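protien #1 (seq + structre)
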Amino acid sequence: MIGNDWDQKLRVIWSSEGFKKFYTIVEQEYKNKTIYPPKNNIFEALKLTSYQNTKVVIVGQDPYHGEGEAHGLSFSVQKGVKVPPSLQNIYKELYEDLGIPPKKDGDLTNWAKSGVLLLNAVLTVVKDTPASHRKLGWERLTDYIIKVLNEKDEPVVFILWGNFAKEKASLITNPKHLVLISPHPSPFSARYGFFGSKPFSKTNEFLKQNGLSEIDWS
């Protein structure tokens, strides 16, 4: 289904009757409504960042619900699409934290390929209807992904922005890992603790302390 080690790690989910029944509902949604991201991009985060290569997890809410925006990576948009406000704020914090100037586009594929799993808590959404697939069933899968990452012997940084993401915090119990929690980078909440939280430098310092290569956030 994914094409890397996630297939083995998630085989209990893929083969379960509950997931098969749930995914039938997802497929019906794609047939009857406009759903984002495109169906072949639903699992893009897992495809680009294997279990073994995951050093950092950034948990988002659900995909962007505007046309052409979502492509399966949390907070990321396709090249050529206007950078959304939340990602603009992420870029602002990145500049304040590490001095890296904002990219012209919002495509975070390079982060994914360097070991940052850009995982939304919910993997699909109805066009123009935020949170429309919340509680549909995706949370069972994304909770399980966090649980198997929690079992890794190699330290992982979990970056949880906003309430959807904070719900995953209780699943991270391994003391080897670092959990960074702050408000969502949305314009509605960023000034209440996202700005100034320095997640990028904290992540790289933790990786460095544990003998792991730092993330190139540029």
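ok now protien #2
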Amino acid sequence: MLKKANILLKILIVLAVLCLVGCGSANDKTKKLKDLDFTVLAEEAIPGELKKLIEEKKMQEFKLTYQDSGFLYICIGYGKMSTGGFSIQVKELYETANAIYVSTLLIGPEPGSVDLTKKNSPSYPLVVIKTKAMDKSVVFN
């Protein structure tokens, strides 16, 4: 009986070690290797074909990527808003072993800050981030 309990204990220890090793390798894939250099593009700097794609999608929330001439464009749109005055902050853009991670924050207008001409005009807040092209998928946080 004691021999069976000893074997069972060894099996449980081996399983626990395997679980811990497996969890560790998953963390390595999502560990930040480095922050990426990027530029937030003004509307006039967005490539023409990408502008067309954005125009088709801007009414709803969207996330898309586009590659052209050695650059990766990461686009995030927040859909139709009832007023103007919104801004978007790029919180993070970084590379891991297997992906590029991006995180943004939509910042609403401060109360009373929207002028009357924009108050009843809809807006379509979006951000286009330009960075060096890489052969990795983009994960939107």
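Strands lie at 34-35, 39-40, 61-68, 71-78, 87-95, 99-107, 126-132, 137-140.
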